[in-house]
Amino acid sequence: MEPKIKIYLADDHQVLIDGMLAVLKTNALFEVVGHALNGEDIIEKVCAVKADILIMDINMPIRDGIEVLKEFSVKGYCCKVIVLSSYDDYKLVKEVIKLGASGYLSKECAGENIIEAITTVANGTPYYSQNIRDKIVNSMTNNGDSNSMLGVPLTNREIEILKLISQEYSGKEIGEELFISASTVETHRKNLIKKLNVKNTIGLVKYALKHNLINP
User: Fold this and answer.
1) Are 160 and 204 in contact (CB under 8 A)?
2) Rounded (5°) CA angle 4-49-30
3) Sign of the CA dihedral 95, 98, 100, 103?
4) What is the pLDDT of residues 98-130, one digit of tens each?
5) Residue 44 in 3-state DSSP?
6) How far is Cα 56 from Cα 105, in angstroms, rounded to an integer?
7) 168-171: long-range contacts at Cβ-Cβ below 8 A with a sequence spacing of 24 or more?
8) What pTM, to 2 d.p., does this model score?
9) How close are the terminal C-alpha atoms of the chain, in Å?
10) 119 neighbors 53 (Cβ within 8 angstroms)
11) Domains of the chain with bracketed CATH
12) What are residue 63's phi and psi, to 5 degrees?
């Protein structure tokens, strides 16, 4: 029998806590080990019950989710964190990812995606709801306008990867950013080198600079 995934919930709205509890109780592999309505002492509480995953709102009284994540990053994470928020601002998403969150789930689709999010994160893969993934992609493609500036037609995905390569992201980091494997990133990199007729990664960076894909 598989061990249950222990889950701790933190949100300042009891009705949302109750809603998540109702959904999570439908899965025999999940066990909710506690919940909180604010961010006070949340790290100690989560670690004390040995939770595997913390699902946490960003906007909470006393201490918000960002403060909790910052303390986690200093003390060391005792569990994985999925941020639950009504905000889908790209800068906020980037901030929580940098602070070590394993996922970002929009409240508007939490009911239908929460089980998938928990299962994905528990298996070691970051999870972001579809609207958040769209925000990330849209922020990097300029709605396809970049393609008109290039000497060689590139797909939006190739433009995304070229930008990140030029910003010194590693293959692993690019994969995490775009939700693809590192081997897929490497395949795209090799294809770009061939397609743009350059010798190496440095050539890709020069190409990106020349065509205003990144700031010099």
Assistant:
1) no
2) 20
3) positive
4) 888 988 988 877 777 899 999 989 988 888 887
5) helix
6) 10
7) none
8) 0.66
9) 56
10) no
11) 5-128 (3.40.50.2300), 136-210 (1.10.10.10)
12) -135, 130
